[in-house]
Write a structure and sequence with these properties.
OB fold (Dihydrolipoamide Acetyltransferase, E2P)
Length: about 120
């Protein structure tokens, strides 16, 4: 049987790490065969609010979005999503963010506009 550790901790939340909890369950007769992460690790990813959307001056299918990422300054991000609109909240990988599949977000220039892009880490 598979179940989420979060689900288990909604009913009982012992003050121990995941590994300690798995060991305690096994020693109690409930064998834990494996513990695996639901998602690969990532960092520096935030929820951003889209404040303004304008068409990219040099591209037909791109938008330039002004977003609030909670740092006190607004960022301009080039976006290819056709459904982006002002007022929505979206996931934003900040520069330096580590993403699944060994990708790192970085700043770049694209068609004369600053944008966030992802590149493979070595």
């Amino acid at each position: 049987m598979q179940f989420s550790e979060n689900w288990l901790r909604t009913m009982v939340d012992p003050k121990m790490t995941s590994d300690e909890l798995a060991h305690m369950l096994t020693m109690s007769g409930l064998e834990v065969e494996e513990v695996e992460a639901v998602a690969p690790p990532f960092s520096n990813v935030v929820v951003a609010e889209v404040l303004e959307v304008t068409r990219h001056p040099n591209a037909d299918r791109l938008n330039v979005c002004t977003v609030n990422v909670g740092t006190g300054t607004h960022l301009n991000i080039v976006c290819g999503a056709p459904n982006v609109r002002a007022g929505m909240k979206a996931i934003c990988a900040m520069a330096g963010a580590v993403l699944p599949l060994a990708r790192t977000a970085s700043r770049s220039r694209s068609r004369s506009a600053s944008c966030a892009a992802s590149s493979r880490r070595a």
